[in-house]
Amino acid sequence: MNQPESLKNLSAVLENKRGFKLSMTIGLDGFVDEIVHLVDKRLDYANYTRIPTIAEWGARISRAAGLSTNMEMVTVQTKLGGNGPILSNALLEYGVELTYVGNLGKPDIHPVFKPLAEKAKAVYSIANPGHTDAAEFEDGKVMLGKHFTLKEITWDAMKEAMGGAPGIAKVADECNLFGMENWTMLPHMSSIWQGMIDEVFPLMTRTGDKPLAFFDLADPEKRAKEDILAAMKLIGQFEAKFRAVLGLNEKELYEIADVFGITYENDQSPATLKKTTLAVYEKMGIYCLVVHPVHTACCVIGGQYYDVSGPYCAKPVLTTGAGDNFNAGFCLGLSLGLEPLQALLLGVSTSGFYVRNAHSPTFEQVIDFIGKWSEGKVSA
What we know:
The protein has helices spanning 3-15, 54-63, 83-93, 114-119, 155-162, 164-174, 189-200, 225-237, 250-260, 270-284, 322-335, 340-357, 363-374; strands at 23-27, 31-42, 48-50, 73-81, 97-102, 122-125, 130-137, 140-146, 177-181, 212-216, 243-248, 288-291, 296-301, 304-309. Helix content is 41%, strand content 23%. It contains 13 helices and 14 strands. The model has no long low-confidence stretch (mean pLDDT 95). With 380 residues, the protein is an alpha/beta fold.
């Protein structure tokens, strides 16, 4: 079946899913994101031209070596950030009943998270948020983060906030999906996963279909190989009580392949993407591995490889959070029982809408977007 026909079928399926009831629990990070542009030329107090690409910014920095330079950042938006909050915000727009645990502010919720907190079923805020300057360019983004508050997200703090291991087990038993995002930046995330395995799993009593557990590493390049391997092993152990789903972007896929000792061609071809995704999936031993490159998306479920093309946008309005919006659409699709190809298409449609509109779509809006895309009416 060709992709336009698949999109039309997906639109019809989603029409029949209106009014769905899903419960999800997401965590564990939280950031205040300032979306910034780097000034190339200041024209007057109100107007400037922007450094358009990362390469040009890098060249300007390189020219200052041995000297010094001054660069101006202009904040174009202040918004909630972090993989967990952005994923949650997108799921809330879709109408999911959501519980959040993480660092959204203590003792008071930070203002950028208040809309999320007001929509959520429950919020357990353990610490104050981190801060990110997200420098946006036409060809990507550079995230400059301050992470010192993330050390306060610990297993003991999570248990204290949620009523101990029994409270967490009750939440896990009742949800359709349990998401624990941003392993790279949360120094105690592996111990939290171990705490879940040791203390929560024995208390879970759910029968029938296991809930989904979604993991997003968030660029593990800076973490040691042995730490990454240990984290991958822990994710695999979640299969005992969950259907584990690991989400990666293309860069992360090849980083994990390197850690596992998987060899691949350095050509970014579709064949290499498929071969590497299948190889990492086999090493992980989990329900689903999903990968979202810029132009496409793919996943492996039950040993079967699926891939789709995305609605690529050459000049996005906003890219920070695009991956999290893909994850929201894909996770929603799996939770609704969609076929893997349909879940992938819902993922790329969610991110495609987001980068063009700088906000997550509602269920109605994504159905409309999918319809327009199927007819070739989505702008590139």
